[in-house]
Write a structure and sequence with these properties.
With 255 residues, the protein is mainly alpha-helical. It is built from seven helices and two strands, in the order H-H-H-E-E-H-H-H-H. Strand 1 and strand 2 form a beta hairpin. The longest helix has 43 residues. The chain starts with a helix and ends with a helix.
Length: 255
Amino acid sequence: MIEQFLVTGVFAFILTFVRIGSAVMIMPGLGDSFVPGRIRLHLALALTLALFPLLMPLMPVPIPVTGKLIVLITMEFIVGVFFGTIARIFMTALDTAGMIISLQSGLANAQLFNPSLAAQGSLMGAFLSVTGVVVLFTTNLHHLLIIGALESYQLFPIGEIPDTGSMADLMARTISASFSIGLKIAAPFVVITLLIYVGMGVLARLMPQVQVFLLAMPVQILISLATLALVLSAILAFWLASFRDGMVFFLSGGG
């Protein structure tokens, strides 16, 4: 009896670790590039140790043979990566908004390393991405990611082949929603920049001797920074609500 329990427990632990671990390595906050790989591994092991007793009734019985076991582990890995990628895409809405804001404020040439994406990005994008991670943990929304990893077993039961068509459709809709959120966040800066350009155009027509474009850039940057200071709290509140709603929509089965 003890031997059977140990074999079943180890099997459940391995399958749970494959899905949870692959999700943790990608999901925002817990799986960002500035989090050391060893810390991510320890988090994945800790979550697996806490969750696998709850998931043991969902494990296939008896334990599959080698060929089926490899296929089962591969499907668990795919589901974990898919869940982590969905959460990561919602996070990139802030980077998209930051890139648009940088373009509109004249700071697009100021490129620096974005630790959340582990790549070069805009100044505003890096600022909003790092701030978004801080707010994510401050508001305890990272608990939603952990709950989502557990709820994914209801969406994608163990042993069933995922519907790749539905997964691709959900991925496309998530990317579209993420871009829409980023554009909505940057909308005030688009409007203000348009007004600045219209005003500079009128000034250039009224006073041709004034070098309008030499004056436009400092004014544009100053007004954009002032606007950011005024709307930053609203930007983060809107993104948090969108992130929460998007993850809840995903966990409800996309219905």
